[in-house]
Structure formats: C-alpha cells, structure tokens
C-alpha cells in the first residue's frame, strides 16, 4: 500500500487549497487598494479644481469611474487610466524580487495582484482615434500582506527593497497618483520623424477628415522601452 504522504492526490488537494486561498487573499487586497485609488482620484480632482478655479476650464481635472476594474482621471490634454487585472501573478525567476529575504523566507509573498497605469491623449478618446497609442507609465504590485512596490518610469519607480516593509495606505496611494500625474505632465508629445509621416494614403486622409484618426502617440516613431524604468528616482 502506498504511503499516504506520497499520495499525489493529497499533494494536489493541499496545493489547491493553499494556492486558491492565497490568490483569493491577494485579489481581495488588490481590489481593496483599487477602490482606494478610485476614492483618492475623486478627492484629488475636487481638491485640485478648487485651486484651478478661475483658470481655463479645459485645464481642470476630471475623474471618471469606468467600471469594476478601471478608473480614469483627465488632466488637461492627458488621461491616466488605472486598470486592475483580475488575476494573481508570480514573477519570473530572473526578477530582482527573488533577491529579497522577505520573498526567500516565504515564496508565497511573491504572489501579487497588479494595477496598471496608462497614459493616453485626451483627444484620442474625444475624436475616437482608435489607432492612437497609450503608454504604461507605472504598475503597482500588492501581495497577501498588503506589502507593495511600484515599477515605473522615472519618478514612478520605487526601490524593490521597499517590498516587505512598505504597506500600502491612502497616503502612499496619493503619492503614486501624484507621481503618475507629474510624469505625464512632463512627458510631452513630440513631432514624429519626418520619414515616418512623409507619405499618406487616400484612406488615411479620408479617415482623418472624417474622424481625425491618423495615429498619434507621445513618442510615435521614437524608442520608448524600459530604459528609464527604476533608473531615475
């Protein structure tokens, strides 16, 4: 008779119970943080608009709840979309997170939910330019213990070694949002290279005339990789 300790069914059941419970906890924490983000976005829009009172109305901040897993804030000519993924993720083995003692002592601490922050042009939505590009400016990772870290462009980047000590709360959510807004305001729309736009088809012109749909993005035609992720604090 097989040793019950080596019974694969027992191992499968144990793993299912442990991981299912873990992933549900991570999801609950991430969803809680995402709702906090919505709350802070709404408050910030009201707060900043008081300071912007009397200025051009097109400069004001506008908050919009886009559903269970999405929210946006419009800042003049830009939109930041906060999008929560409904699944729990694990990091690949080359990720720096595995160097942390916090993760090495308990691998389950590496399982995280993720909230992505995208930057689009306001006009892309206003004129329904479906081919326009948005950019991921940051993403927030939250684990089972409410510990978090942020990957992102320039000031959006937090150090990995904060993970395991930093617990996400309303103040940290506000700092993340403010950093995303500052980065977006400094991230200007550049003229695309001449060779990229020197030829246009009749269809493109007709589309442009109808709906202003010639593709636009802040760095269209330029390299925009992860070269400044976590390099500038």
Number of domains: 1
Q: How many β-strand runs?
A: 6
The string of secondary-structure elements, in order, is HEEEHEHEEHHH
Major beta sheet, strand line-up: 1-2-3-4-5-6
Uncertain stretches of 5 or more adjacent residues: 220-233
What integer is the average pLDDT?
Answer: 81
Overview of this protein structure:
This protein has 233 residues and is an alpha+beta fold. It has one domain (4-211). The protein is 36% helix and 17% strand. A hairpin with a 2-residue loop joins β2 (70-75) and β3 (78-84). The longest helix has 44 residues, at 8-51. The radius of gyration is 22 Å and the shape is globular. The chain starts with 7 loop residues before the first helix and ends in a 22-residue tail after the last helix.
Short summary:
This protein has 6 helices and 6 strands; from the N terminus they run αβββαβαββααα. The chain has 233 residues and is α+β, with helices and mostly antiparallel strands. 24% of the residues are buried.
Write the layout of secondary structure elements.
Blueprint: H1 8-51, E1 61-65, E2 70-75, E3 78-84, H2 101-105, E4 113-121, H3 122-126, E5 135-142, E6 148-152, H4 170-186, H5 194-197, H6 202-211
Antiparallel strand pairs: 1-2, 2-3, 3-4, 4-5, 5-6
Helix pairs in contact: 1-4
What are its keywords?
single chain, 233 residues, alpha+beta, 36% helix
């Amino acid at each position: 008779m097989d040793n019950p300790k080596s019974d694969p069914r027992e191992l499968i059941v144990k793993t299912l119970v442990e991981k299912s419970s873990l992933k549900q906890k991570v999801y609950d924490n991430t969803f809680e943080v995402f709702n906090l983000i919505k709350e802070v976005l709404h408050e910030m829009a009201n707060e900043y608009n008081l300071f912007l009172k009397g200025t051009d109305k097109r400069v004001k901040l506008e908050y919009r709840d886009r559903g269970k897993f999405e929210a946006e804030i419009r800042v003049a000519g830009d939109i930041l979309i906060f999008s929560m993924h409904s699944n729990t993720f694990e990091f690949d083995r080359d990720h720096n997170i595995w160097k942390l003692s916090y993760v090495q002592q308990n691998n389950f601490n590496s399982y995280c939910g993720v909230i992505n922050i995208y930057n689009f042009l306001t006009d892309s939505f206003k004129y329904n330019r479906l081919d326009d590009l948005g950019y991921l400016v940051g993403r927030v990772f939250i684990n089972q213990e409410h510990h978090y870290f942020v990957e992102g462009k320039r000031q959006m980047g937090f150090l990995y070694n904060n993970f395991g000590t930093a617990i996400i709360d309303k103040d940290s959510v506000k700092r993340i949002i403010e950093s995303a807004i500052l980065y977006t305001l400094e991230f200007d729309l550049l003229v695309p290279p001449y060779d990229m736009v020197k030829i246009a088809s009749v269809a493109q012109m007709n589309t442009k005339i109808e709906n202003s749909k010639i593709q636009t993005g802040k760095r269209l035609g330029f390299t925009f990789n992860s070269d400044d992720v976590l390099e500038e604090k």
